[in-house]
Amino acid sequence: MLSIDFKQIGIVAGKEFWDRIRNRWVLAVALVFTVFALVIAYFGAAQQGAVGFRSIDVTIASLVSLVIYLIPLIALILGFDAIVGERERGSLDLLLTLPITRKELILGKYAGLAGALAFSTIAGFGAVGLILSPQLDLNALFHYAGFMGSAILLGFAFLSLAVMLSVFAADRTRASGLAIGMWFFFVLVFDLLLLGALVVTAGDYGGDIFPYLLLLNPADVFRVLNVFSLDEVRTLYGLATVFPEALSNPATLGGVMLAWIVGPLAVAIWRFER
Amino acid sequence: MASNIVEARGATKDFGTVQAVKGVDLTIAAGELFGLIGHNGAGKSTLFKMMLGLITITSGDILLDGEKVNGPRFRETRRKIGYLPENVVLYDNLTGIETLYFFADLKAVPRKDCPALLEKVGLSHAASRRVREYSKGMRQRLGFAQALLGTPRLLFLDEPTTGLDPGAIRDFYRILRELKGEGVTMVLTSHILAEIQERVDRLAIMEDGGIRATGTVQALREGMNLPLTLEIAGGAGLCEQVRRVLEGLAIESIEEAGNTLHIRLPRDAKMPALTRLATLGEAMRDLHVREPSLEDVFFGYRN
Fold it and tell me: Best of A16, A17, A94, A101 to disrupt the B interface by mutation (most B CBs within 10 Å)?
């Protein structure tokens, strides 16, 4: 078993991170987050005839809906060619002749990309938090920070999935197809399947395991994590009655999210080392 | 320090039911410039990747400087290696010098060594230009500079002159000569046999996953016993005179092209033929002995 050299991981991570800074990827994503978050914060209630910031709970509820679509997509786009792209360019062989293990290479790639994603999330939503801060009390700021933290974790989980498929895919085209398929499945199809099953069985079968099945989707974990952090949001989603209290503990949900980050990455390392 | 810096013993690689490399035994001595030639699919790229530790070996062993490339001392072993892949594609976003910094950091080579390497490959003027602006030849030279980081003891060069213009090819081999003088061992593959035949110390011909022959170019020529060609320039009537003096020798063919005769004859008939031709005196204006080219040798072994 070869030891891990964190310096090697740091070198690869640094290159990946600065690549994304230099090609303005971080800036572009941060701007997208800022603009969407601002629009939601100020015009989210326009359908009800009101314009302007209302409450942090309503704003977070709207942002959760946005982030569930956007962050998985961005994370998958960011990571789908992490390894397969290097392989297709021919630079992977070169890297693997250097004094770096496959595990260090993949961890370095992941860390750099995760850093870029976290940086753009913090910059994008953080800017909106700063703009809103005069209207927020400490408790609201805490919840907003919690939302940002969970959004980062959601990004990390989908980035981990993206890196995993970039190891398995034979070429970039297939990797991009798999990434799109993964996004469709977790963001659009998964909940529909669960709801469909509930409706078909009229809730007679599997109703008890329904909340646990939600944990099989990191996007749902993110949703539940935010739903249960705020009273008004919980009411808005109406999920409080069906979700067992033991599972709604932020630490439990955070642990599940962590498993979604570590699991696919571990599979990616295992496959890449074979 | 091992005297054989590369040592393959029964190295085999299977891809499913296909055996890409079949029990290769090969030694390359320290300081050698060694060529690996073979047609596409002969197994040389697979063997190259096995030597570099890029693919696992199904059976057998390959040692670099006495160590397995993916063994417990793999970091030290890999720091001794430089590798230039065929059609090297580096990072478009980085400048030339940043590219070297990145690889230098991974190899734990001081960054201050990088500008001199760019100078060595003739890229100083483009150090701060992004790699995306580099021509194919410039990328190849940058890849070569990368391979030279950390003064490696063993260089693996896969089709190293692809994309280089004649001047750059000359410079490239000049650097190889300098490195050889410093005791660096080099293993290179090339499809351009004419280019390497005068430059490698020894070479191996690969065919169908195995090594058909190993040796110096001259030894391989002699081993094949391919015919030589004598080229004689002279005036009118020379052809008849030559045929007359060479009568009785095992001459394969005599062809006339303008004022030049091309005489193909077995290697062991060379000296008797030259002795007899000397009697023609000034009837001959010029005479060259043409050894079979590496290409002839290569096709000779294949057939």
Answer: A94
Using the Cβ of B74 and the Cβ atoms of chain A, whether some distance falls under 8 Å is answered with yes
Range of the domain at B297: 226-302
**For residue A84, which residues of chain B lie inside 8 Å, CB to CB?**
none
**Inter-chain CB proximity A90 and B54 less than 8 Å:** no
B95 & B170 share domain:
yes
Q: How many domains does chain B have?
A: 2
CA distance B84 to chain A (A): 7
SS3 per-residue string spanning chain A: CCCCCHHHHHHHHHHHHHHHHHCCHHHHHHHHHHHHHHHHHHHCCHHHCCCCCCCHHHHHHHHHHHHHHHHHHHHHHHHCCCCHHHHHHCHHHHHHCCCCCHHHHHHHHHHHHHHHHHHHHHHHHHHHHHHHHHHCCHHHHHHHHHHHHHHHHHHHHHHHHHHHHHHHCCCHHHHHHHHHHHHHHHHHHHHHHHHHHHHHCCCCCCCCCHHHHHCCCHHHHHHHHHHCCCHHHHHHHCCCCCCCCCCCCHHHHHHHHHHHHHHHHHHHHHHHCC
Interchain proximity B108–A99, CB inside 8 Å: yes
User: What confidence score (pLDDT) does residue B202 get?
Assistant: 92
Q: What is the mean pLDDT of residues A145-152?
A: 92
Assembly ipTM: 0.86
Q: Is B111 on the interface with A (CB under 8 A)?
A: no
CATH number at residue B71: 3.40.50.300
Nearest CA of chain B to the CA of A86: how many Å?
9
Say whether residue B92 is in contact with chain A using an 8 A CB cutoff.
Answer: no
Query: Which region among A67-76, A241-250, B9-18, B155-164 has the lowest average model confidence (pLDDT)?
Result: A241-250
**Residue, of B222 and B110, whose pLDDT is higher:** B110
B98-128, pLDDT tens digit by residue? 999 999 999 999 999 999 999 999 899 999 9
Do B48 and B188 sit in the same domain of this protein?
yes
Same domain, residue pair B260 and B190: no
- Of B203, B222, B241, the residue that ends a domain is B222
B222, B256, B281: which is the final residue of a domain?
B222
Is 60 exceeded by the pLDDT of residue A241?
Answer: no
